[in-house]
Amino acid sequence: MGAMDQDILKVLYTEKEIAARVERMGKQMYEDLQDKNPLFVSVLRGAFIFMADIVRACQVKSDVEFIAVSSYGNAMSSSGAVQITRDIQQDISGRNLVVIEDILDSGNTLFFLKQYFMTKGAASVSICTLLDKPSRRAKAITADYTGFVVPDEFVVGYGLDYCQKYRNLPYIGVLKPEVYGG
Ligand code: 5GP
Ligand code: MG
Q: Are strands 83-86 and 63-70 parallel, antiparallel or unpaired?
């Protein structure tokens, strides 16, 4: 038991369950992407662990890129205004992008990013999200690849944080209310 486990109310997906799901998603994506020379774009920081696993589960010839956005600060719900805090470092015109995200919640982030990448000349932009919380959607956007559909609860672990902590938990869980003063 690590120092963070005592803050967890319940585990939603174990390390093993995540690994099995990511493996299957990668194989499915391979079928679609094998002749597309995709550019995987990870949304920092939450998707960094998922990114590392999904690109190895999808053995397609590809390259990787990173973008950082902020819309939350330390709050637990999206403000709607998305800002790029670190932009991509290459020309994406004509490329088939696959945006790798930790969770699709209100949809504000991915709605913004999809338009942004299309404006920059991407040939296509598909979305791969580990988690989907459809109950909170505010923008008309759906993922092309989804790991798990989650209930309307604030989750941490496997890259997802609360106030920048808990990203390094190997599983995905829900915090005890007292941890965030709820
Ligand atoms: P959206 O723009 O779709 O509302 O939110 C996307 C971002 O909000 C995600 O990339 C993630 O950083 C954050 N987010 C949404 N729901 C959760 C959650 O349950 N837990 C954590 N840790 N972050 C979340
Ligand atoms: Mg995020």
A: antiparallel
Token couple for 101: 């995200």
Least confident of 61-65, 145-149, 177-181: 177-181
- For residue 45, the ligand closest to its alpha carbon is 2
| Distance (Å, whole) CA 66 – CA 128 | 14
Q: What is the CATH classification number for the domain harbouring 15?
A: 3.40.50.2020
Q: Mean pLDDT throughout 53-70?
A: 97
**Helices assigned H by DSSP within the chain:** 15-33, 48-57, 108-119
Taken as a whole, the chain contains a residue count of 182
User: Mean pLDDT over residues 145-166, rounded?
Assistant: 97
Name the token pair of 57.
């589960």
- Give yes or no for a contact between 140 and 107, defined as CB atoms under 8 angstroms apart: yes
pTM of the model as a whole: 0.95
Pocket of ligand 1 (CB under 6 A): 43, 46, 71-72, 78, 101-109, 154-156, 160-162
Q: Which domain holds residue 114?
A: 5-72+81-180
Phi then psi for residue 93, to 5 deg, are -65, 130
- 105 noted as active-site residue: yes
Q: How many domains would you assign to the chain?
A: 1
Q: For residue 67, give the ligand nearest its CA.
A: 2
